[in-house]
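Q: Structure tokens for this one, please.
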Amino acid sequence: MRREPGFALALVLVALVLIGALTAGALFAALQELRGGRNRQAALNAAAAAEEGLLAVLGAWDTRTLNTLAAGDSSVRSGVAVGGGSYHVTATRLDESYFLLASEGRDATGAARQAVGAFAVLAVPEPDSLAALIVGSPPSAVLAALADGADAAPDGWSCPPSLGLVPGVAVGAAASDSVFFAAVAALAQRGAAGVDSLSAAFAPGDLTLDGGRHSGLLVVGGDLFITGGAEVIGTVVVRGRLGFLGMGGRLTGLVLAASAVLLPGASPPAPAIRFSRCAAGMPGPWSCTATHWPRVSA
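A: Here is the predicted structure, written as tokens:
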């Protein structure tokens, strides 16, 4: 049999070319997989940063800034994420109760971005107990006897079915709680609609109501004195003392105060404080919960 010169060399060269091609293909696939893994990791880091920004805003709700925004206005918060990335959160007030939160997160290199969002709803932190008068310390027996816990609609109001009977007086620290008071004070300072679209008012110091009829949400940063037959229908939150002077007056709805007293010579009508779920506008809209909408890649 005759041998062809160089035939073995040609076979070796072909084999080397095939092996080289396979090696190059494997290397290319490995590099692509590595790049894809890095991109996925960067996207995950960016998404984690965006979620962290959202939780940072919801977990430390800025009542002074956010609760005082007008509808359509926005507030921005930025920060550094735990993993080294960053977040940028825009909170936009949609109406009296709803906020839109949009959070954009970036990884540490800035190569990847992810966005998440949520609708936040304000809801009132409810007192531990429910009564016509909720105070930080028990009032005198005479004043306690003037608080009526029978749920009743104010004259001329069309209200849902009665809750029945609640205590006339309950001891609770809601009016003195800084988070609760800051929330209701911020709402009142905006002059937002109160009970049944009636007014909301805030007095930073002491306030005396001498006669007249007042309806809605009233928040007082000091002491509140009732005299001259003044009538208040709605929710009253008093950071300090609630006092009745002279002929006093009547509060219908829900009253929260640090303390309540009958001052010397006071002779308010009975009941001086009357519970009304309808007048109090329960439930109300002040603490924050959130509903997420889907993550968006960028």
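A few notes: The chain has five helices and 15 strands. The radius of gyration is 33 Å.
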